[in-house]
Amino acid sequence: IHGTRLSAVCYAFLSDVNANALNSDILEQQIKSSMWFTRGWTLQELLAPQHVVFYDQQWEFLGTKQTLGKLLTLRTSIDDAILNGEPLSRRSIAQRMSWASQRVTTRIEDTAYCLLGIFDVNMPMLYGEGEKAFLRLQEEIIKQSDDHTIFAWPMNRHSQPGLLAGSPAAFANCQYIRTMTSRKGRSPYSLTNRGLSIKLMATQFI
């Protein structure tokens, strides 16, 4: 994502969109249904550059990240402020994970690797490790963040062996989960040889 962020402009080619659609409603639906929004690696192409220009299957101009902002937010659940350059770190881990929850990659490992820049994390890419890559990603995030929302996904204890999610899909309904703005009462936590060591503040809601 760092190299993408340095790009002057990113061109997004929507090969399944036809700008000559019968009317604007059909064109809008084509854009929202484009496969471009289901691919893991295109998430950073949308978020990192300041300028993103969209073209259809005939290289006809569709719009920019700014002019298509409302449509992009409806399709991706990424708010306008982030699309316009607000730092990704201002959104919780759960929110950022939710942006990738409906996206797929050809290789299982890329489900994690395509998110490294989204979380400003560095780790070796070990193709062949399968779903372990996403677990490693979460472990690396925990090493540098005390954002508890990484554990905020709905857990099915009959199919999930631990507190770490198996894939971004687990965060599909977490786009509105925010982290605490104050660090008061937030104790550090870590992964140990016996599992997760964490202290959480309990708050009563009436």
| Rg over CA atoms | 19 Å
- Sheet with the most strands: spatial strand order: 1-2-3
Summarize the helix and strand pattern as letters: HEHHEEHHHHHEE
Low-confidence stretches: none
What best-fitting shape do the alpha-carbon axes yield? Answer: elongated
Profile the largest sheet: 3 strands, mixed
Termini Cα gap:
43 Å
* SS strand fraction: 5-15%
Count, helices: 8
Secondary-structure content class:
alpha+beta
Give the integer mean of the pLDDT values.
88
Tell me what you see in this structure.
- The protein has 206 residues and is α+β, with helices and mostly antiparallel strands.
- The chain has helices at 2-5, 24-32, 42-47, 69-76, 80-83, 93-99, 110-113, 132-144, and strands at 10-13, 52-55, 61-64, 190-192, 195-197.
- The chain contains 8 helices and 5 strands, in the order αβααββαααααββ.
- It has a 3-stranded mixed sheet, with no helix packed on it.
- The termini are far apart.
- The mean pLDDT is 88.
Outline the fold blueprint.
Layout: H1 2-5, E1 10-13, H2 24-32, H3 42-47, E2 52-55, E3 61-64, H4 69-76, H5 80-83, H6 93-99, H7 110-113, H8 132-144, E4 190-192, E5 195-197
Parallel strand pairs: 1-2
Antiparallel strand pairs: 2-3, 4-5
Short description:
The chain is an alpha+beta fold and 206 residues long.
Q: Which features does this protein show?
A:
single chain, 206 residues, three-stranded mixed β-sheet, 8 helices, 27% helix
